[in-house]
Amino acid sequence: MHTKKEIKDYLGTLISEAMYMEEGELQEDELFSDFGLESTTLVKILVKVSEKYSCTLTVNELLSHQTLQEASDFIYDKINKIHS
Questions:
Q1: Which residues are within 8 A (CB) of 22 and not within 5 positions of it... i.e. 6 or more apart?
Q2: Least crowded by CB within 10 Å, which of 1, 2, 29, 46?
Q3: What is the mean pLDDT of residues 12-21?
Q4: What domains are there in the chain, each with its CATH number?
Q5: Max Cα distance, the chain (Å)
């Protein structure tokens, strides 16, 4: 079972690396659009998340959850629905 914190940390790491941000620079309530996260980059991140957690995520789903906290909560809920 994956925890919300684990998912948030992993997603945060992927986003930070993709955006060339320093560790800890990404705030969990900051909008993705505020730091220029583009859909092509988001797709690459989603592929990694989908592979790690054995789920299918779409860009549209994640764009409905525009912060690290919202996105990681959504992914956590989706994973638990799949694996329950």
A1: 16
A2: 1
A3: 93
A4: 4-82 (1.10.1200.10)
A5: 36
